[in-house]
Structures are given as structure tokens and as C-alpha cells.
Request: fold
Amino acid sequence: MIKRFGLNLGWKLGDNFMDDSDIICACEEITYGEIKSAVAGGATSLEKVQEMTHAGTVCGQCEDDLRSYVAQLLKK
Ligand code: FES
Reply:
């Protein structure tokens, strides 16, 4: 995976390529592991994940990636 400055730059390669410490939302410093925990903790939609983590609630730049990751995690 290509990363710059520790940020995921939009590659949607799936869970097998993500580390729990990868930052998904730079504004709120929310990691992939925190997104996984929100889904495991009962979040059933992007909106619920945002409510639980605040990811994607500032500039919105991460929202497309966040939506993809949440969709992938909900399929499991
Ligand atoms: S990078 Fe996620 S809200 Fe700005």
C-alpha cells in the first residue's frame, strides 16, 4: 500500500492490506482499528460509524474511503 505521511491516500485494497494503526481520518486521527471496533461494537452504517468515532465529520475528505471500509467490514 502506498502511504504518505502515514495517511491512507485512497487505495481501496481491502482489509488484508490495512493495519489497525493506519489513519483513515486525518482530521480526527481515527485509525482503521477504531473503524473496525465501531463496526464490531454495533455500527451498521457509515452514519453510525461517524457518530461513534467522529471520522469524516470535519472536512469530509476521507468520507469515500471511510464508506468503502465500512461497507467491506459490514460484509464480514
Ligand atoms: S480527513 Fe476525515 S474529516 Fe477530514
Notes: The chain has one domain: 3-75. Residues 1-6 have pLDDT under 50 and may be disordered. The radius of gyration is 11 Å.
